[in-house]
Amino acid sequence: MWNGHHLISMENADAAQARALLSLAHQDAFAADTLAGRSVANLFFEDSTRTRVSFSLAAQRLGAHVVDLTSSGSSLSKGETLLDTAWTIEAMGIDALVIRAGQSGACRLIADHVQIPVINAGDGTHQHPTQALADALTIGRALNLTKNWDFSGLKVAIVGDVVSSRVARANIGLLSALGAQVCVVGPTIMAPDAMRVLGCTVEHNLDRAIEDADVVMMLRIQLERGGGAVLASIREYHQSYGLTKPRADRLKADAIVMHPGPMNRSVEIAGEVADAGFPDGPSVILNQVAHGVLVRQAALVLAGSCDQEQLDRQARVAD
Ligand code: CP
Predict the structure, then answer these.
(1) How many angstroms does the Cα of residue 319 sit away from the middle of ligand 1?
(2) Percentage helix, strand, coil, to 5, in the chain?
(3) What's the rounded Cα separation, in Å, for the pair 171 and 136?
(4) For residue range 197-223, what is the model confidence (pLDDT) as tens digits?
(5) What contacts 114, CB < 8 A, 6 or more positions away?
(6) 306, pLDDT greater than 60
(7) Which atom of ligand 1 is the closest one to the Cα of 52?
(8) How far apart are the first and last CA of the chain?
(9) Using CA atoms, how far apart are residues 73 and 233, in angstroms rounded to an integer?
(10) Strand pairing category for 118-123 and 96-101
(11) Is residue 232 classed exposed, middle or buried when 0-12, 13-18 and 19+ CB atoms within 10 A define those classes?
């Protein structure tokens, strides 16, 4: 999971490291001056609401200075490369970079060329590690698995435009490492059978996939990445692959419903299902948002304060 002091991917996630970070986030006992005197740059080269605001809040709550940069207001619009932008920000004495980019692999590339920690805030269709951590914290808290973060036996269905989704890839890596059985669900074009190489199963019938699921994670159709281009109609998609109220009513009694956001109501999820908030209803969507701040605090602390030896020691204590 950690690669040196960088947090780039949940592929082949290290369960001990993940459990250490989740425990830290769950305790929520960060001192307000933990990162006092440090500065964090949020480089968001693709739109974001949740991730960008929560990384800013997380850094501010730890006492760090936060610098925000987006493509439209930066010299990227004049042709400067991502790497030159990262080097420029690093040269100003910034202590950590949080990066969102449209290009898969951009965060890895930058991490390989700077000295300071890089945290991937979502790169193309590749990975979104802190979203997966927010989701794991949410699952652990909702299903009372916070003692040892062992998700063995848990059945997770990730539904929708899976092939376009960095959230799905990050969750497949992390939740599988924690012991869960992950099934991706969607029409063949959105959930191709080849996705089995990631360690999940693939199902094309939503009703069959969710009948014994403990966690149902709905995903948006990513029109900006070409997702859904071949769909005949959104109405038909909603009927076949949307989490409608009748479908939600057939879920297991203690199953939870997730969505990383942003949601398209009446497409992948009915508004009344999304709004049926936990614990009275199954939706933990706003819990995921709140938990984003906690895991990002933990990620910033671990990235900013420790070397590999320290991370390994922390992981051994939590194991
Ligand atoms: N889940 C997520 O990444 O949302 P944003 O694009 O709003 O950050």
Answers:
(1) 30
(2) 45, 15, 40
(3) 8
(4) 999 999 999 999 999 999 999 999 987
(5) 86, 87, 90, 97
(6) no
(7) 8
(8) 15
(9) 37
(10) parallel
(11) exposed
17 CB-near residues (< 8 Å, 6+ apart): 1, 2, 311, 312, 314, 315
Does position 281 have pLDDT exceeding 90, yes or no? yes
Find the residues whose C-beta lies inside 6 A of ligand 1. Answer: 48-52, 122, 128, 131, 260-262
Instruction: Give the model's pLDDT for residue 213.
Output: 98
The minimum-distance atom of ligand 1 relative to the CA of 100 is 8
Do residues 173 and 166 touch, judged by C-beta distance below 8 A? no
| 264: helix, strand or coil | coil
> How far does the centroid of ligand 1 lie from the alpha carbon of residue 317, in Å?
32
* 59 vs 66: CA distance, rounded Å: 7
Q: Whose CA is nearest to atom 3 of ligand 1?
A: 51
Decide if pLDDT at 316 tops 70.
no
Mean pLDDT, range 282-296, rounded to an integer: 98
pLDDT, tens digit, for every residue of 59-101?
A: 999 999 999 999 888 999 899 999 999 999 999 999 999 999 9
Q: How far is the CA of 128 from the centre of ligand 1 (A)?
A: 9
Asked if pLDDT for residue 282 goes beyond 60, the answer is yes
Residue 307: pLDDT above 50?
no
| pLDDT tens-digit series, residues 167-208 | 999 999 999 999 999 999 999 999 999 999 999 999 999 999
* pLDDT tier, 318 (very low <50, low <70, confident <90, very high otherwise): low
How far is the C-alpha of 265 from the C-alpha of 117, rounded, in Å? 37
Check: CB of residue 315 under 8 Å from CB of residue 76.
no
CB 134 within 8 A of CB 295: yes
Contact 155/126 with Cβ under 8 angstroms? no
Alpha carbon separation from 163 to 8, 147, 226, 236 (Å, rounded): 19, 33, 11, 19
Strand partners, 257: 216, 283
Q: What is the DSSP letter of 277?
A: B
